[in-house]
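Regression check, nicotinamide-adenine-dinucleotide case 293:
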Amino acid sequence: MARVAFIGLGNMGAPMARNLLKAGHSLKIFDLNPAVVDKLVSAGADSSETALSAAQQADIVITMLPAGKHVESVYLGEEGLLQRLSSRPLLIDSSTIDSETAKKVAAEAERKGFSMLDAPVSGGVAAAAAGTLSFMCGGSDSAFSQGKEVLGAMGKNLFHAGDHGAGQTAKACNNMLLAILMSGTSEALQLGVDNGLDPKVLSEIMLASSGRNWTLEVYNPYPGVMEKAPASNDYQPGFMVDLMAKDLGLAEEMAVKSGSAIPMGSNARNLYVAHQKKGNGSKDFSSIIQELK
Ligand code: NAD
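Current build output:
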């Protein structure tokens, strides 16, 4: 069993960390928000005063932070883990960030003798709790092999997408598609309701027809259709609009660099940014249906 340091225990990090405890790994944790730390301590984790003290004795360090600037602040700079750690644990960043930052942090890590994986996840909070996340990893074969056991305690699909940054590239493509599916599903449901259909009946029909997709299967955006979905809980996240808007920005930056056309992705981003600007940033991303009412 590994000694794991887990940094960032928000909507995703906390259930992921719980699964590491369940699998028998020992866990030292750090988050800027003491409230989330306390909950994990009662589940058996050790709290640390700083990211550095959590990571110092670890075999593996996992970070699950909001965005690239948070990842840079934990790993880089005079006070960052790469500079201050005296040991050389495997570093796994599961945050969703731009692949350029992932490559920059990993290159610096390698210069200092660390192995590092970018390992963003897909599946949302429910999959994080169930231990069924998909991990999309970027890094060397040996780092991927080394990380497999702990990643396997949190997820059921482990993909090695390529070298550093490849996991983040795959994640940006996936989340752009998710935003398109959520917006499109919302549009179809609202169109049906505006024309007299019951959203539950329409959802069942589309689930059994060619419109079937993940949002209809597990994350229906229409309130009351799916008891456990954020839509039926006042759009409590889940996965925040702020984070989806960030991810769509990452996909757009990537597309500009590669000269790729992403007309559907750009539309989805405009929709999400408009929704965010109306004060909906901390709602679940399925609340995009409110833009269509
Ligand atoms: P969150 O905002 O709920 O959690 C982030 C946590 O990081 C917070 O508890 C915050 O206090 C902590 N944090 C921020 N800076 C820190 C620092 N310097 N040191 C220690 N802790 C720090 O976000 P989340 O929903 O858990 O998402 C985390 C990452 O996972 C994001 O990159 C997101 O895009 C990605 N993601 C989220 C989902 C989802 O469904 N929520 C799904 C897939 C991927």
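Comparison notes: The CA atoms of residues 12 and 261 lie 31 Å apart. The chain has two domains: 3-163, 169-292. No diff flagged against the previous build.
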